[in-house]
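Today's session is about reading a structure prediction critically. Students often jump straight to the picture, but the first step is always the sequence itself: look for stretches that repeat, for charged clusters, for runs of hydrophobic residues. Only then move on to the predicted structure, which in these notes is written as discrete structure tokens rather than atom positions. Here is the chain we will use throughout the hour.
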Amino acid sequence: MGPQSGGVKRRTDGTYLGEIPALRRIIPYLLRTRTGSQVFFPQRIEVDGLLAWLDEVNQGRPREERITLFHVFLTAIARTLRLRPEMNRFVAGRRTYQHNDISISFVVKESMRDEAPESEARLVFTGEETVEEVRRLVDASVRRERSAEPGADDKLVSFFASWPRPVLNLIAHSIRVLDDHNALPAPLRAAIPLYTSVYVVNTGSLGVDAPYHHLYEYGTASVFVAIGRVTPEPVVDEHGDVVARSCVNLVYTLDERASDGFYFARTAEVFRRLVSEPPLLAEPGITVDEIVPVWPPRR
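Below is the predicted structure for this chain, in token form.
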């Protein structure tokens, strides 16, 4: 059976995976919702090397052009999805699909005030971008979202927000049914940032730790990444001594129907290496075996 067989299985945002193991085909019938299938995976990453690298690359840069932790994390997420494509899958209508692109969505707040409005941005990557290229993409997107002109998602929300509750319930139900049958119009899907590979929230920018966040039932994001603040934490070094290191705690929320835990374990190690050693991100042709040459790691 080919990768796309049967019109009802065809989507504009994903390729149907017909030849996956039998157990993975059955799981979506046993675990019918994304939130009912979510698994939380916390990870601590030492970032002293990353912080030193940021100090070096930002020397002499104007403030508005500085590379931040968020730029590095987005670059590493996109690169990881290119190197570990099974993490870029989603389940719709009890079928498993491979995303046709690598996309990351995140919230943009107009300003750091309680009453400031917020919107959502969705960026598409190749997975080969440098950190500088991602910085340009992110900064341009943030400027657009903070401009006076509302984006497609903002217009969609504003259009429906004032409708009566019964109508909104009907619309939400219709979106889910149409999506399950791969009949949701592509322009509507493109206007909803929840149709994405990964959803990211950077709570570290607010000075707080990463939350254990749920997945969204609507959309196609099988991975949610919460990024916490940089804090000094006790770490046992290579000599067995307890020392203070700068660390970032992350929490991944995963749809276990889309991929298995063994595959994610190595994926998390690939991501950790890319973040803690950002010069690796300057090598678009680098392979998983070069990043994590020994797996599982020796103890």
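Discussion point for the tutorial: The chain is about 35% helix and 25% strand.
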